[in-house]
Write the structure tokens for this entry.
Amino acid sequence: MNERKNAANEPPRARKSLKATAVVSSYQKEWFTGLRARVEAGEDFAYLNADVPMEILRAMDIPFVVNQWWAAICSAKRMAPKYYGLLKEAGYRDDLCSYCATALAESLDPDDKLSGPWGGLPNPTIAITRLTCDCQSKIFELFAANHGAELYVMENTVPRSTPSKWWELAPDRWEDLYDKDRLDSAVEDLRELIAFLETKTGKKFDMKKFIEVMELVNEQEYWYKKTRDLIAETRPAPVTVVDTINAVMPAQWQRGTRWAADHAGSLYEEIKALADEGRFAVPNEKHRLMWLGRGIWHDLAFYQRFEEKYGAVFVWSMYLAMGADAYIRNNVQSDPLRALASRYIGMEDFLHMPPWNSEWFLSEARRNHIDGVVYMVPENCMQAVEGSYFIKKIMEDAGIPVLIFKADPVDAREWNRETMTGLVEDFIETRIIMGGNK
Amino acid sequence: MSIRKCAENNTAFRRLNDVYRNREKELLIFRENGGKVVGEIGCDVPDELVIAAGMLPVRIYADRESSLEEADKYLELSFDPVIKAQFEKLVNGSYNDLIDFLAVSNSTDVIIRTYLYLREIKRIEPDKLLPPVEFIDWLFTRKPMYKTQNEKTVKRFWETLEEWSGRKITQEDFIAAAEICNKDRAALRRISELRRAHKPRITGSEALVIIGSAFFMHRSEHAELVSQLADDAKSWPEAEGVRLFLTGSAQESAELYTLIEKSGAVVVGEDHDWGDRFSSRDCNLSYPPLQSIVDCYMLRDFSSKKALVSERVKTLDEAVDASGARGVIFYINAYEEAASWDYPSEKKSLESRGILTKAFVKMSYPVSANVGLEDKIREFTKALGGV
Ligand code: SF4
């Protein structure tokens, strides 16, 4: 696995078939150009970690970019080897926290405005992260210092109670999901964040606008729910994860806008039309696969490698399913900030904490008629250490085989496509085709 | 006579050393007499409250010899080796007859995961005999609103301890326990002064024994012994060698210190949780109990796991200055990543003031598993003018 990539040896680009994917990708560029213009005109610009409640900034019309989205862009542009080299030159280790440290590494690049993705990241004036791991605040502080931005950190708490089937409680009974004091403290955190942003930017937080944003998020996620359900019940599947990840992940970071809600609606309509017309992503679909973990941004084509040979299709990733199950908060008007608190504090629990993640993954595997799970566990991220033993056990006890492997979502330097392909092929052959697990 | 000889001949040190080396001895006696023992993972469990409840707090520690069969089954690769070995002992039953309860503080990510995994094992594999577990979820960011929330967290722990011990913890119980712990910390700070003195009278490897024995015995006896030792050691000979400071992974044994001191250096201070950081702040007894505990644990010297880079740079600069060290060794175990993000800034700040640094990262456990380490330490000591 030590093969180093070079330009001539780059993996092929993934096939993306949906209009909605093309739309999101051109929208992002247009939006980013507009954002740059706003920053250049002197507006405050925030750089956020993915688990920050961005709905607040949306409601206050503060432009922002999400760290993990930007890391995915940098990775897709194959910038990672250069960036991690810069980290090393500056005395940092280049084998740590690659997902979250990409933008920090980029901030060390003197040529960023010339050679960075899309003209490089404009200089943020605000950097906000949550303390969901030991390293995040350090990376953000270093990043903020390099850009001259002000750092703001938000705390994180661990649930004491873990009611089962969170995905059934989340939309309407979100109050019952958490220990009361956790929600209380998250609401206080939101108020502090608002106060900070008002002072820093001079903009006012408007509750009416905020409710509109929350309703738009609900609308967008409602379409994701319908899309997830449609893919789950359609065999062969009309689309694969390459389509859904590319259409959903970037649009998720635009949530709370009319554009994003409409885009989610059009994504559903497009996939529905494919299903209705009997146009399937892989007509010879034989085995449905679930992808657990972050996307392999540097090699999305990897997911498609098993379609022709085995009819094995990756139909599930968390990106669409989290949209479907984790974001919707009905009855926002009753207590809008509390509704948001119940969304953002849960993300870490739902995804990274057994039994909430393991039970949800199993429920999703069943809903989507999954035959096997391929589970990527990064070696250098403690946050993504999420109880792989428990996840594997619950799946395999239910007759669904699991392949766990070690790889990095954005750093391609240690990625050997052939070795990884061999691992998955072997898994398909021995555990799914011959295993008789179902 | 060398410091080591003085220590070996000293009654107080001999007793502390015996406890340090036989870590189960005191807790077994305590349990035989009907007492209840609370095992602790993480350095932020308020011992004062455990003692106030009439129970004995002891640290869970790694066993360097044991296999990692259970840990390898449940834990991913990125758990650091010390936590892995601690987890192994909890899950393989080694602690079954040693502790009655387990308190876990969120002192680092990996410990939070450990708690989540133990909780899940208890739920899905109830035949594994794990003790009742309480999690203490501190908010370490220094904002007034988090202080209030921390008070609620401590109150919950207080109530759990009452349930575990079957008795009410009164304000007087708390004050008495906090006084013992404050006395112990004051005595330990006297030891620390002897280490940092112009002519150090105690070396790091002795200090580690003196501090670490607190985790395995009655705190009142510990305070008495350390106080006595601090008096006795004033007349011990001066420790010779290059003054070094150690930062990074907690050292549960004196192995690394012995290696450093063999190279001709003396470890005059450290900021890890089995060292000087343990005694860095008292409970302020002019505050109400909950506030007093929060003040003590939330506002201690910044740990590398729960602080910004800038906070760590400042804390380390101050600690190194106070110790008079000429060089700093960063020693970071494999998969204990957070401190690695601090290192370049800390190095820059220290070296700008003429203090040399040497980093050892991704280290294996135990210390002896690192081939060539001794030579590298010797080189560093030599570069600082040691022999
Ligand atoms: S541990 Fe994981 S989540 Fe935390 S900063 Fe590193 S890569 Fe990011």
Observations:
- The interface with chain A takes residues 73-79, 106, 108-110, 112-113, 115-117, 120, 123-124, 135, 137, 139-141, 143, 145-146, 149, 152, 305-306, 308-310, 337-338, 340-345, 347-348, 361 of chain B (CB under 8 Å).
- The mean pLDDT of chain B is 96.
- The two ends of chain B are 20 Å apart (CA to CA).
